[in-house]
C-alpha cells in the first residue's frame, strides 16, 4: 500500500488553493455573464402564427406581473386562475398595457387544490394554439407555526395538489401540443420554484417537498425529450427567493423585490439554455452564500430567521 510522502504534502496546498480560487472566479464571471452581459433570449419564442404564453396562477403576484410583461413583449396569452371575476379583471389590466397591439388574452378557470380536475380536457381545449412558452407559476405555502402532525390532512393534501400535482398533470396534458409546436421552433416549459426546496425552512415541509419534487421533475422531463432524438422542447426550473406579492404583505427590500420588478427578471431568464436559473441577482448571491456554507451553519441561520419571523407573527396577533 503506497504511503503519503510528507515532504510533498505542502506542495499540494498551493494547488488546492489555486483550484479553489479558479472555482470562485468562474462563479463570479458566470454570475456577471448571466445577469448583466448575456443577450436576452425570450424573443426566440416569438415564432410562428400568434405565439402564445400560458401562465398559471395569473390572478395575483408573480403570475399577473409576468402576464403583463409578456403581453408587452408581443405574446398572446392563456391565463389560469380559480376566480373568474378576478381573472376577467386581470385580462382587462393586461390588455390595457398595449390596447393597440391586437394581441389575444384567453383564460381558463381551475381550482388547483382539487383532485378532480379534467387536465386532458383543458389540454384539448387549447391544442390548436401555437403555445411557445408554458409558465407553471401557481403555488401557495400558507405559512404557520405547526408541525405536520398538527396540520389537518386536507390542508396538507391541498398544498401538495397546488404545488406538485397541478403543475405536473397540467404539463403532462399539454405535452403533445408543445411537442408539435417545437417542430417549428423552440418551446420552453418553466417551473417557478422556491428556495424552500433547497433550504430547511421550518413548518413548510409539504410546500418545500413539492418544490423539490418539481425541481427534479423539470430536469428529468428535459432528459425524457432527448433520450431518443433531439428536441426543441426545453424545461427549466426558476428558483425564487422572497418576493413581495399580493399574498405576502411585507415591505419591499433589496432582497425582496416587488412582483412587478421580479417579473422582468423572470422573463429575461427565459431561453437561457440552463436547466435551473435564479432570475434575480440578489437572490442569486443569497442562494450561493447559504448553499455554499456547511449545512449546520445554514440551518442555524435559517432557524434564527424563522424564530424571529414567528415571534413577530405572534406579536402582531396580540396587538390586533
TrEMBL record:
Residue spans crossing the bilayer: 12-34
GO MF: oxidoreductase activity
InterPro entries in alphabetical order: NAD(P)-bd_dom_sf, SDR_fam, VLCFA-Steroid_DH
Source organism, top-level taxon: Eukaryota
CC annotations in GO: endoplasmic reticulum
Keyword list, A-Z: Membrane, Oxidoreductase, Transmembrane, Transmembrane helix
Family named by the database record: Belongs to the short-chain dehydrogenases/reductases (SDR) family.
Name the UniProt record assigns to this protein: NAD(P)-binding protein
Amino acid at each position: 500500500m503506497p504511503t503519503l510522502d510528507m515532504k510533498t504534502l505542502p506542495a499540494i496546498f498551493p494547488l488546492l488553493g489555486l483550484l479553489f480560487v479558479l472555482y470562485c472566479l468562474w462563479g463570479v464571471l458566470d454570475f456577471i455573464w448571466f445577469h448583466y452581459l448575456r443577450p436576452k433570449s425570450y424573443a426566440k419564442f416569438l415564432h410562428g402564427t400568434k405565439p402564445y404564453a400560458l401562465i398559471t396562477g395569473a390572478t395575483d403576484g408573480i403570475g399577473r406581473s409576468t402576464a403583463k410583461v409578456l403581453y408587452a413583449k408581443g405574446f398572446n396569452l392563456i391565463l389560469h386562475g380559480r376566480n373568474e371575476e378576478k381573472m376577467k379583471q386581470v385580462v382587462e389590466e393586461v390588455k390595457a398595457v398595449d390596447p393597440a397591439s391586437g394581441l389575444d388574452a384567453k383564460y381558463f378557470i381551475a381550482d388547483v387544490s382539487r383532485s378532480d380536475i379534467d387536465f386532458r380536457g383543458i389540454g384539448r381545449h387549447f391544442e390548436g394554439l401555437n403555445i411557445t412558452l408554458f409558465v407553471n407559476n401557481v403555488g401557495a405555502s400558507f405559512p404557520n407555526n405547526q408541525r405536520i402532525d398538527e396540520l389537518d390532512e386536507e390542508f396538507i393534501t391541498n398544498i401538495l395538489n397546488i404545488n406538485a400535482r397541478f403543475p405536473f398533470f397540467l404539463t403532462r396534458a399539454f405535452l403533445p401540443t408543445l411537442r408539435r409546436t417545437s417542430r417549428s421552433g423552440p418551446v420552453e416549459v418553466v417551473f417557478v420554484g422556491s428556495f424552500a426546496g433547497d433550504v430547511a425552512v421550518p413548518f413548510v415541509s409539504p410546500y418545500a417537498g413539492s418544490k423539490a419534487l418539481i425541481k427534479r421533475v423539470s430536469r428529468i422531463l428535459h432528459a425524457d425529450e432527448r433520450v431518443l432524438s433531439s428536441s426543441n422542447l426545453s424545461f427549466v426550473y426558476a428558483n425564487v427567493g422572497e418576493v413581495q406579492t399580493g399574498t405576502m404583505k411585507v415591505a419591499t427590500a433589496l432582497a425582496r423585490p416587488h412582483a412587478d420588478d421580479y417579473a422582468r427578471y423572470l422573463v429575461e431568464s427565459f431561453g437561457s439554455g440552463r436547466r435551473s436559473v435564479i432570475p434575480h441577482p440578489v437572490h442569486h448571491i443569497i442562494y450561493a452564500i447559504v448553499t455554499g456554507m456547511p449545512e449546520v451553519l445554514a440551518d442555524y441561520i435559517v432557524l434564527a430567521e424563522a424564530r424571529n419571523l414567528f415571534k413577530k407573527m405572534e406579536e402582531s396577533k396580540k396587538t390586533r
